[in-house]
Design goal:
604 residues, ABC transporter transmembrane region fold, Rossmann fold, 3 domains, six-stranded mixed β-sheet, 18 helices, 64% helix
């Protein structure tokens, strides 16, 4: 896939610079030129349609002059009438052929750019996605891809045809009449174009403000709806509506200003057109009175003016739309310019097959330079063994899973699998070898079957059923009215915590990875559900290299080794019994949790 040039976004107070516009067009050009034959044929049809369209008034002029003498035979006007109809049809024929030829070019360009942006967003780092606002990004992509179609359509179907027609008309006026007509037409056209460009450029900043407030309002709405339950918990419907309305009020003010400035632009354009038409018709009428021009010539000039100024009037709208489209596309392309923090090295290779050992070798890591998270972490997970990591919140436990997945790169030391530094491996190969059951399982708003099959999209139904049985989920699914086709709702909210965790286990088992990560997979569940899930997790871990990150120590008693972390360091390590006998941090945590469980049992 072609690498797209990064396009920096100008500040909201500045209009879109011409250099950015040309860079945007240059970026789009390869997507169109892939279908160069269709493009060339479409341009040929465009010229053919305009030649036929310009010839129509000339034939009409000859008909008028031919009908003037009463004694004139009707043969010549009849032939001209037939030619007139043929030219009219030819204009429509060439126009529709151009549409047919170029339809796939436009849609393919939109499809390819949308796919490239979508793929790039998935390739960006976890840091980017933790900071992004989904509603605003989705609206930027939507507007950007739609604007590609608008830009191509307006350029090919409005700008180029109008320019071709203007050139043909000015040439005919110069050859058939005198330079005065050309001068009036050229001055009128130049004044119209300059006025339109200047005012439209001034309005770009207003249009960008409309887009930004629209995206901000959409982001706020999506964020509120995604947190529907939280809004209800705190009875904050009115508060959310007020915040949304505040954003919409900003959009209203910007949109109103955009509309009023548009009216000013339209009035100025119409004034220029009125002056130009009046001057042209005055000169033509004077020519008829002097005997230098016929009635047919007057009709021809009038027809040319209509043909020129009707599309030219629309050209003002087209220019504004193109400028808006370029602004929207530029904003979308800033997403393509976002830095890929984690990328495969040029010589990256696949992870070798076979049993896998994980090593953290003197690992240091910090999300921000002034806040260290891991400080010299050293441990190994042998093939088929389970290592558990426990400790208080903020100790850096979950960061180990993110580093193993290579959502981030270490700032010191290395994470290795079978001796291979993760930075030397292809990310697809690495992540294909790892399965995770997270603390907060987020499901797609689709069927249970789809969410389990997501672990291996090529799996057949029997494999999905087998994974569900292994996760002790099959009987529950079969008891539902729609069975495996039951939709789970947004983020899986229609399922309980235990049911979602079983789905997570099932799709991880379906993936069948050699490395497993359980990232506090049961901490959000009640004790009874936790015990049921814990047994399934231990079965899933058999024969696999497993990292268990846990808060509740009762879930890691059977681990081959337990690591106790505090403030980014490993302060103790060993088996459950040995750590209890040592009487250190692990023993204190165990005693505290046992007291909490005893107290909870006494109050129920």
């Amino acid at each position: 896939m072609r690498r797209t040039t990064a396009l920096p976004r100008p500040p909201a107070s500045a209009p879109l610079k011409e250099s950015h516009a040309w860079r945007t067009l240059r970026t789009l050009f390869p997507y169109l030129w892939r279908y160069r034959l269709r493009v060339v044929l479409a341009l040929g049809c465009l010229v053919g349609a305009k030649v036929a369209n310009v010839a129509v008034p000339i034939v009409f002029k000859e008909m008028i002059d031919g009908l003037a003498p009463v004694q004139q035979a009707l043969a010549l006007p009849a032939l001209l009438l037939a030619l007139y109809g043929l030219l009219r049809f030819s204009t429509a024929l060439f126009t529709e052929l151009r549409e047919i030829l170029f339809a796939r070019v436009t849609q393919q360009a939109v499809r390819r750019v949308a796919l490239e942006v979508f793929s790039h967003l998935h390739a960006l780092s976890l840091r980017f996605h933790l900071e992004r606002q989904t509603g605003g990004i989705s609206r930027d992509v939507e507007r950007g891809t739609r604007s590609i179609s608008s830009l191509i359509s307006y350029s090919l179907y409005s700008i180029l045809p109008t320019l071709v027609e203007i050139s043909l008309v000015l040439g005919i006026l110069f050859v058939r009449y005198d330079a005065g007509f050309v001068l009036i037409a050229a001055v009128s056209l130049s004044a119209y174009v300059v006025f339109t460009v200047k005012v439209s450029n001034w309005r770009i900043d207003i249009r960008r403000t409309v887009n930004e407030t629209d995206s901000a309002a959409n982001t706020r709405a999506v964020d509120s709806l995604l947190n529907y339950e939280t809004v209800k918990y705190f009875n904050n419907e009115a508060y959310e509506a007020r915040r949304y309305d505040e954003q919409m009020a900003q959009w209203e003010n910007a949109a109103t200003r955009s509309q009023t400035t548009l009216s000013f632009l339209n009035l100025g354009q119409q004034a220029i057109i009125a002056l130009g038409v009046t001057a042209m018709m005055w000169r033509a009428a004077a020519g008829v009175v002097d005997g230098r021009m016929s009635i047919g010539d007057l009709v021809l000039v009038n027809a040319f003016l209509i043909q020129l100024y009707i599309p030219l009037n629309f050209l003002g709208v087209v220019y504004r739309e193109i400028r808006q489209a370029l602004t929207d596309i530029e904003r979308m392309f800033t997403l393509l310019g976002a830095n890929r923090e984690i990328a495969d090295a040029p010589d990256a290779h696949d992870l070798p097959e076979g049993p896998l050992q994980v090593n953290f070798d003197a690992v240091h890591f910090a999300y921000e330079s002034d806040r260290k998270i891991l400080d010299g972490i050293d441990f190994a997970i042998a093939p088929g063994k389970t290592v558990a990591v426990v400790g208080p919140s903020g100790a850096g436990k979950s960061t180990l899973a993110r580093l193993l997945y290579r959502f981030y790169d270490v700032t010191g030391g290395a994470v290795r699998i079978n001796g291979h530094d993760l930075r030397s491996l292809k990310q697809g190969s690495l992540r294909g070898a790892i399965g995770i059951v997270p603390q907060d399982t987020v499901l797609f708003n689709d069927s249970i079957f789809y969410n389990i099959q997501y672990g291996r999209p090529t799996a057949d139904r029997e494999a999905v059923y087998a994974a569900a049985r292994a996760a002790q989920l099959h009987d529950f699914i079969e008891s539902l009215p729609q069975k495996y086709e039951t939709r789970v709702g947004e983020r899986g909210l229609k399922l309980s915590g235990g049911e979602k965790q079983r789905v997570a286990i099932a799709r991880t088992l379906l993936k069948n990875p050699p490395i497993l990560i359980f990232d506090e997979a049961t901490s959000a569940l009640d004790s009874q559900t936790e015990k049921a899930i814990q047994g399934q997790l231990e079965l899933a871990a058999r024969g696999r290299t497993t990292l268990v990150i846990a808060h509740r120590l009762s879930t890691v008693m059977n681990a081959d080794e337990i690591l106790v972390m505090q403030d980014g360091r490993i302060v103790e390590r060993g088996g459950h019994a040995a750590l209890l006998a040592a009487g250190g941090a692990y023993a204190r945590m165990w005693t505290l949790q046992q007291r909490e469980q005893s107290g909870a049992a006494a109050t129920t």
